[in-house]
């Protein structure tokens, strides 16, 4: 597989103090990236404006803010989730940490509550937020307030997983139908509960929708197994996945990236593993946490590596990790190792384009650069 890092220039049109941040959200719709939330100083939300970036560089970046104090708009927050729904060209924001005491933002816990936060929808055409009034389904509960969780969309269904409530860490999985806005409580993932993990939606060879999870933090960094949730049967399975040509697995990590690879990609052949298809790309993250006495105020050891997750065509329940060594376009300096960054991906005619922005580096600095990782379908 061929991969190339290319810098994305986003400073023009945006005040310098809004560029560098970590623990924020980024979603891509069409050829635009939307950035929300995060922090420049630990536990201090940077603001609640939306940064709009033209990924082709034709238009300057812009800052979208409420027209008046009366306009519906989510409060500033860190550690939230925001994902794009392709069919409606809308973004869905949930959870996070904010307010004066930086506790998990209080979300809806009971029917009829009007004064709590809830699911937010951002119309990327009108560039306006709408606070949605959700409901709980039969035998289900509203999801618990939390931050540093993960989210994914499969079809018209949004999934919320794991994260950090007021104390401890969660392994729970909830979903909401974006049509009728009804929450469902689903089977929890295999323990331990964790924050800073990743969840993404893929399809099995039979077309069944699945979610996959790898890594996270539970007091220490986690690696495998690869945990797989089958949406139709609402069941979890786990698979130990090794690296090709190298012993072991990718380094354990949290606050990293994981995105699905295009369904239409060509199959690839790799030695004894045989014919396979790439189904996801994992990259970067924190490989060793900050000293416990520093916690969120410190920085750990970060990673800059990239891996493709392969699924065997002859044995669909067999997977392997393949290390990818991206080139850097135009002799640019390669992106520095990082975690706590924001990312999303979009399919292209040649493969996949991942957009990654900001994050925290080993000097404990919030960084503001943005990168495009283009991955093609070439044979291995």
Automatic annotation (TrEMBL):
<protein>
    <submittedName>
        <fullName>Kelch repeat-containing proteins</fullName>
    </submittedName>
</protein>
<dbReference type="GO" id="GO:0019760">
    <property type="term" value="P:glucosinolate metabolic process"/>
</dbReference>
<dbReference type="Pfam" id="PF24681">
    <property type="entry name" value="Kelch_KLHDC2_KLHL20_DRC7"/>
</dbReference>
<keyword id="KW-0408">Iron</keyword>
<dbReference type="InterPro" id="IPR015915">
    <property type="entry name" value="Kelch-typ_b-propeller"/>
</dbReference>
<keyword id="KW-0677">Repeat</keyword>
């Amino acid at each position: 597989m061929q991969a190339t890092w290319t810098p994305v220039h986003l400073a023009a049109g945006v005040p310098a103090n809004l560029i560098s941040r970590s623990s924020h959200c980024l979603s891509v719709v069409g050829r635009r990236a939307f950035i929300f939330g995060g922090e420049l100083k630990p536990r201090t939300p940077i603001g609640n404006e939306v940064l709009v970036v033209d990924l082709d560089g034709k238009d300057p970046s812009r800052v979208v803010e409420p027209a008046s104090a009366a306009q519906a708009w989510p409060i500033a927050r860190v550690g939230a989730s925001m994902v794009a729904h392709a069919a409606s060209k809308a973004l869905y924001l949930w959870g996070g940490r904010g307010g004066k005491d930086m506790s998990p933002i209080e979300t809806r816990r009971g029917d009829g509550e009007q004064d709590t936060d809830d699911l937010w929808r951002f119309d990327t055409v009108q560039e306006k937020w709408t606070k949605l009034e959700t409901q709980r389904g039969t035998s289900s509960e509203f999801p618990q307030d939390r931050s540093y969780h993960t989210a994914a969309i499969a079809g018209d269904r949004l999934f919320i997983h794991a994260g950090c409530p007021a104390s401890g860490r969660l392994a729970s999985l909830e979903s909401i139908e974006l049509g009728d806005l009804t929450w469902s409580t689903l089977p929890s993932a295999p323990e331990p509960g964790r924050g800073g993990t990743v969840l993404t939606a893929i399809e099995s060879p039979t077309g069944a929708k699945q979610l996959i999870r790898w890594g996270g933090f539970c007091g220490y960094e986690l690696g495998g197994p690869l945990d797989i949730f089958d949406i139709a049967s609402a069941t979890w399975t786990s698979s130990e996945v090794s690296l090709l040509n190298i012993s072991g697995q990718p380094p354990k990590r949290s606050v990293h990236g994981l995105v699905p690879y295009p369904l239409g990609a060509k199959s690839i052949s790799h030695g004894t593993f045989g014919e396979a298809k790439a189904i996801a790309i994992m990259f970067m993250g924190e490989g060793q946490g900050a000293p416990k006495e520093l916690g969120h105020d410190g920085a750990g050891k970060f990673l800059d590596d990239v891996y493709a997750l392969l699924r065997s065509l002859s044995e669909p329940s067999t997977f392997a990790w393949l290390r990818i060594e991206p080139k850097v376009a135009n002799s640019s300096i390669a992106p520095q190792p990082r975690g706590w960054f924001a990312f999303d991906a979009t399919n292209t005619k040649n493969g996949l384009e991942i957009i990654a922005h900001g994050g925290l580096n080993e000097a404990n600095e919030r960084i503001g650069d943005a990168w495009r990782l283009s991955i093609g379908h070439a044979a291995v």
